[in-house]
Structure formats: C-alpha cells, structure tokens
What does this fold into?
Amino acid sequence: MVAQSNASADKDRKKVGLAPKLDSGFYGQDIISVSQFTRENLEYIFDVAEEMRAIVKRVGATDLLKGTVLACLFYEPSTRTSSSFIAAMSRLGGTVIPITQGVQFSSVSKGESLPDTIRTLESYADIIVIRHPEMGSAQIAADYARKPIINGGDGVGEHPTQALLDLFTIKEEVGRIDGLHIGMVGDLRYGRTVHSLARLLCLYDVQFSFVSPEILRLPLDVMNKIREHGLPVAETYDVAEIIPDVDVLYITRVQKERFADLAQYEEVKGLYVITPELMKRAKEKMIVMHPLPRVGEISYAVDSDPRAAYFRQMENGMYIRMALLAAVLGKA
Ligand code: ASP
It folds into this structure.
C-alpha cells in the first residue's frame, strides 16, 4: 500500500489547487461491493467527482496521482469500464498497466492462477482493477493482495463502480434521490449493474418497479434486501405499464454470455425497446439510463431526446473513477 499521511496528501492537493480534505475512510481500502457505502461516504465521493469534472473541464488533467500506477486486469470484454479507468488515471497524472485487450496475451493464457497474477501485478502497481467472469473473484483477489483491489465487475455478482456512477447520474440529472420511482427493465437476473444499483438505492427512500420476463426476474437476495428496507416494490412484464409513473427508467441488455442455453436467450432478447412513441407516455422530467452497451434496447431516435441520459451517465464514469482512485490512494 502507498503509505501517505493526510498532511502530505493535503500538500499534494494544495499544489494542484484543491482544498484540503479529511480522510474519506477509503484510503487503502478494497472496493468490492456496494455494501461498503453509506449515504455519507457517497456524498463525499460525489463531491470529489464534481471537483474532478471541474478540473477536467478547466485544465484537462492534474498531477494528483503522479508516480502511481494502476493495473487494469480484465478477463472479460469491456469498453467503458476499462477505458474510463485508464482515462481517469491518466488525467490524475498516474500511469496504467493495461491488461484489457484480452488476457490471452498475458500469462493467464499459460494457466497462471488468479492469485499469482495478482501477486505479480501488485509488485508493479499501487492499485488493481479486476473484471472477471466469476462471482466472488474480486474478493478472492483482494484476499491475496496487499494492494487495494477494485471490482470492475465479477460475473453476475456486482459492479460497484458502475452503481456509483449510476447513482451520481441520477443525483446530477434529477437533483435528488429520495422520493424517486425507479423502473429497472430487462435482464434483472444476470445484470450485475442492476444488482449493485438496486442494493445501493436501498440507502434511500425510493420505490421500485421491475420489468422482465419470468426467467430474468431479479434474484431473490436483491429482492429480499429491498423488502428488508421496507421499500415499495412491484414486478411486471410490461414496460408500457410503468413508463408513465417512473422518474428513472434504467434499461439493460440481455446478458447473452451468461446463458447456458442460447435458444433461451433467443426467446427473451429484444423483448423491450424504448422508442420515441413510448417516450411520449413518460414524464417530462423522466430520465432514461443504460449501463451500455445497448444492443437494440433503446432506439437511436431516442438519443436526441433531452431525457436520454445514457451518454452523460457514461461520461460521469470517468469523474467517479477519478474520485475513487484519488480516495483509495489517499489523495482525495
Ligand atoms: N457494461 C456493463 C457490465 O459490464 C453492462 C453490460 O455489459 O451489459 O456489466
């Protein structure tokens, strides 16, 4: 771990024009699950993300993480998570070891175990982001690592940094989180972004409507968590039924790669498509979100609707990841 006192972190912040900050509680921590977050530390990350956005808009980059190295270890495809982490680290003045273009070019293809790969990367890097097809793999990596591990998606488990940027987007777009009616549509079973966001939203006073075919319903553990918090929840198969009532429509692609039986995938793919016609029935201030990639769930004609928030959501990912890297490395 990169040991650094608050005083020296504050000095670095001062050098790049940022106000001193109290310890966020994230310094040196692994980021594995959204269960690590509270309303207070989310506010903190969101404030830092706003500062990061201001820096990027004003000057493009800072030297806050100069001399630090991030390893990006992706055993599954990624466009946004990997490139936004790389951009985040670059804009903070750090550098990246990118094992993102397919681990086939690394020793993983020679049969190296996850713990050995992690041990190797942590001897070169200060922090590691991992994406892996198996649920629980990020925790396994963290158990072996001395350096902080960030979960960039563990199979059908969680995707905590996506949930942070999703929640940040809701707050930025709508101005609040409490009191909102959230509609989640599509692959609620295998969509890890849905699992993480639904869990995180349990910290707030929200109402849920879930829309999916029977075989893609929300897993019971996530549903139970919502019930434990006493939040109102409804399930339906029909997106048209919920669209006039929701404040946020979070739609996801069907996760083809998680199906053992591709015939079953064919049956449920393409069930939900957000079109301009459907948008006419939505609230004037409703927002449409998508973790992306979309594979037909939102028609391109919706992109010009001001309520289409998915590209702004994607951009927010970089600011959130900048905030998180700075916090975990003790510079936020
Ligand atoms: N990019 C998101 C993820 O990695 C969503 C998706 O792939 O559908 O989970």
